[in-house]
Design a protein that fits this description.
Layout (H helix, E strand, L loop, with lengths): L2 E6 L4 H12 L6 E8 L2 H11 L4 E5 L5 H8 L4 E4 L6 H10 L3 E4 L10 H6 L3 E3 L8 H10 L4 E12 L6 H10 L8 E4 L2 E4 L7 E4 L6 E6 L4 H11 L6 E7 L2 H12 L7 E4 L2 E4 H11 L1 H4 L5 E12 L2 E10 L13 H20 L7 E2 L2 H4 L2 H8 L5 E8 L6
Parallel strand pairs: 1-2, 1-4, 2-3, 4-5, 5-6, 6-17, 7-12
Antiparallel strand pairs: 7-15, 8-9, 8-12, 10-11, 11-12, 13-14, 15-16, 16-18
């Protein structure tokens, strides 16, 4: 029986690309109705016109009106949740109460409190399935399947995009380097350890055009989900770290703001008006060219696992590549290369749920939700390719 897909905040840049992926790679036998749920009807109708598919319609929705939002989602099978981090608690509650399956991009933990509702309805919700978290988790699982024991997992990514091309992106920037954030942790020797911004610098050798860049610990969900998944399959790790970087120009700015205490986002008064400093900086950058462009666009994931196989020590490395953003490949130009990387896995995940290729009910971690082979095979024709290699090593200390 054909399914129905609802894209909440579906005309946003990243969720919009997830929706494009779902529309282009499905037919009426999989989805017979695809709804763009948006507060911004102008953007939603523009995307509908671009998609030019009779299955696509538009519904105005405001998740602050929970009863109305629930009524509009009822009857749908899968919800692509493109709302921002700060709204994911509300949006997940609405998806659960509407009786749908769902997934979002962020996976910062608010979702799991509604797991029992999804289970009761026989539905699945995947907190965070984009590039990272999401595809990174599937890559960790794929690497772990090649080893008998796991010592170390290092998840790393280069996200090459402008610092403030949208409000949600600048919100992510402010969130990840907030000095007071409690969730910036690593898993080490049996416990979660809190670290400050710019902790544990490590040079990560991603392939060209990104190259080797310093990366720092970031507050991503993989440190929790990968640790728990590996414990569950009997391969408990000693160390799990998640690092990331943006273009180095962006990183220099964020580091300076951190060193001057500006990342605390404290209130101050200017001309009799109270405001928060990071809100002001974000608003400025969103209006200026410097905040909306960068020299190189795209994404690279790099996963390293150290462990044992047949009593000998091995390193597993997985990384991904995608078409160039220089205009030589149609549909991957400039900022689109970054957006497609993040949005495409989300769209593929929605397809896999609809196809019955997801595992479990309730809130399910990205590691457990899908067979990595299904994810990688679906991404390959689109141009997102996963590369995997292994080598024997003398020890883990490097």
């Amino acid at each position: 029986m054909a399914k129905k897909l609802f894209a909440l905040a579906g005309a946003g840049k990243i969720c919009g690309w997830a929706l494009r992926t779902a529309v282009k790679n499905s037919d009426k036998n999989l989805f017979d109705r695809i709804t763009i749920g948006e507060y911004n009807l102008e953007a939603a109708n523009a995307l509908k016109a671009e998609l030019d598919d009779p299955r696509v319609d538009v519904v105005k929705i405001d998740i602050n009106d929970e009863a109305d939002a629930i009524s509009k989602m009822k009857g749908y099978d899968v919800v692509l949740d493109g709302s921002t981090i700060k709204l994911n608690g509300i949006s997940t509650r609405i998806i659960a109460q509407a009786g749908c399956s769902g997934l979002n991009l962020n996976g910062f933990g608010e979702e799991y409190k509604y797991s029992d509702i999804f289970k009761k309805n026989g539905r699945i919700h995947i907190p965070g399935y984009g590039m990272t978290p999401g595809l990174t988790d599937s890559m960790v699982r794929a690497g772990s399947e090649k080893l008998d024991k796991i010592d170390t997992v290092r998840v790393s990514h280069c996200a090459f995009r402008p610092i403030a091309y949208s409000p949600a992106i600048f919100e992510t920037t402010s969130y990840e380097y907030d000095p007071n954030l409690p969730g910036r942790v690593v898993y080490e020797d049996g416990q979660l350890k809190q670290v400050p911004p710019f902790a544990r610098e490590r040079l990560i050798p991603t392939p060209l055009p990104y190259g080797t860049n310093p990366q720092y610990i970031i507050p991503h969900s993989e440190v929790h989900t990968a640790t728990e998944y590996l414990k569950k399959i009997g391969k408990p790790p000693r160390l799990v770290e998640v690092r990331g970087t943006w273009p180095q120009k962006n990183m220099r700015l964020i580091k300076a703001l951190y060193e001057w205490g500006i990342m605390k986002n404290e209130e101050f008064t200017y001309n009799g008006t109270e405001m928060k400093i990071m809100d002001v900086i974000g608003a400025y950058l969103q209006q200026k060219e410097e905040g909306k462009v960068t020299d190189l666009y795209g994404y690279c994931l790099y996963i390293q696992l150290l462990g044992e196989k047949n009593g000998r020590k091995y390193e597993q490395v997985l990384y991904h590549t995608h078409p160039k953003s220089d205009g030589s490949v149609k549909g991957w130009e400039g900022l689109t290369a970054y957006i497609r990387n993040v949005g495409t896995p989300m769209g593929i995940a929605a397809l896999l749920i609809a196809q019955g290729k997801s595992a479990g009910t309730g809130c399910v971690t990205p590691e457990e939700a899908f067979d990595p082979a299904d994810v990688f095979a679906a991404l390959e024709p689109i141009g997102i390719r996963i590369h995997q290699s292994e080598r024997e090593i003398a020890d883990y200390n490097y």
